[in-house]
Design brief:
This protein is of the alpha+beta class. It contains 12 helices and 12 strands.
Length: 364
């Protein structure tokens, strides 16, 4: 990738293709001959959590201050006019955060001009997250396919069993015996409902433009009535525009997650509903310029590490009284909207993040 830029002989502020760089998922920085930042693309703005306008003119030494290896490679690339790559280095970010990256330094030459430098930053965490999401989406689709086949195999004999019980009930004169056939019919109906819940929503989403904060306010009111001991706070980004979604399905998905949070805190904890806009976000293998992120954060005991990779599977639950269907159904709904639900958990903080693309596609 870096070689392509070198071949084009781009130079800061003159020949580099800004539109191409703006659309890259790789973070790109361009420094002039005095090692001052003259360009950063949107992906780099996301990593450094700052707009290009506010950071232009910053020195390379300041931006790479947290890693002597990175700065040393920058200096070597300038001195020798050659490309250098550092792998699995720690990059210091705002608020004390660190990011593991691969970083490539490519000198840019042009006749009659002084050498400038193009720096490419690849977040290893990002690649791990994308791989994890792709595996999660693939596994979720595979599980749904298997469950649909299983449901079909169960539904046929179940329907026959229910029909036979109804016919038998009509032939029985003994009221006590008819109670038994009634139990068979009720249990058959219960199993059919359970199968429907396992399969999740099978209706095409009826989408329209919805204010996500009004929807969250509705969920908040519902849960507050059900669980008076829990504290639900909000941290909203008012700049998020209306989203093209199925209101009823999104309410169900978010309600399932919030109710899980209530149960995790035994109905006495604190829950935060938080919204933010994400830029250049990849869901599975598809990149979106803008996404809306809805976080449901609770202060419960956390999810055990061995459960974290399984919580979106049907019938997987850490509670004796749970069905293990709430999160699976929520994931199905969000997947049907082109999004994904992610989860991070540690003791005292569990965060479920619903990520929804903001652009309207032809499929919508």
């Amino acid at each position: 990738m870096s070689g392509m830029y070198a071949e084009k002989q781009m130079i800061s502020g003159i020949n580099y293709d800004q539109q191409a760089l703006d659309n890259m998922s790789t973070a790109v920085l361009v420094f002039d001959h005095s090692q001052q930042l003259v360009y950063m693309n949107p992906a780099a703005e996301v990593i450094f959590q700052v707009s290009q306008k506010r950071i232009l003119g910053t020195s390379a030494e300041h931006l790479l201050a947290g890693s002597s290896e990175l700065m040393a490679s920058f200096t070597r690339a300038v001195k020798h006019g050659a490309q250098y790559t550092e792998r699995e280095q720690q990059l210091d970010l705002p608020e004390g955060k660190k990011l593991t990256i691969d970083c490539t330094f490519t000198p840019l030459f042009e006749p009659g001009a002084k050498l400038s430098m193009l720096v490419e930053i690849n977040s290893l965490e990002r690649h791990k997250r994308i791989s994890r999401e792709e595996a999660l989406i693939t596994q979720h689709h595979l599980t749904k396919t298997v469950m649909r086949g299983l449901a079909h195999e169960i539904n046929n004999p179940l329907g026959g069993l229910r029909g036979a019980a109804q016919l038998l009930e009509k032939e029985l004169s003994d009221k006590g015996l008819r109670e038994y056939t009634g139990i068979i019919i009720e249990e058959a109906d219960r199993l059919q409902k359970l199968l429907s819940r396992i399969l999740g929503p099978n209706k095409i989403p009826k989408k329209k433009y919805i204010n996500i904060h009004e929807l969250l306010h509705h969920v908040r009111k519902l849960v507050s009535v059900e669980s008076t001991g829990v504290t639900i706070k909000f941290d909203y980004d008012p700049s998020i525009p209306e989203l093209y979604i199925d209101q009823d399905q999104l309410i169900q998905a978010i309600l399932n997650i919030v109710r899980n949070a209530v149960q995790a805190t035994n109905g006495k904890g604190k829950i935060i509903l938080k919204t933010r806009i994400g830029r250049y976000y990849t869901i599975g293998s598809k990149q979106h310029k803008l996404v809306a992120r809805i976080d449901v954060i609770d202060n419960g005991p956390g999810i055990p590490a061995d459960m974290l990779e399984k919580i979106f599977y049907p019938m997987v639950t850490g509670r004796a009284e749970g069905t293990g269907l709430g999160l699976s159904i929520a994931q199905s709904i969000i997947n049907n909207h082109g999004g994904i639900i992610e989860c991070d958990s540690k003791e005292g903080e569990t965060r479920f993040s619903i990520v929804l693309p903001m652009e309207v596609t032809d499929d919508d």
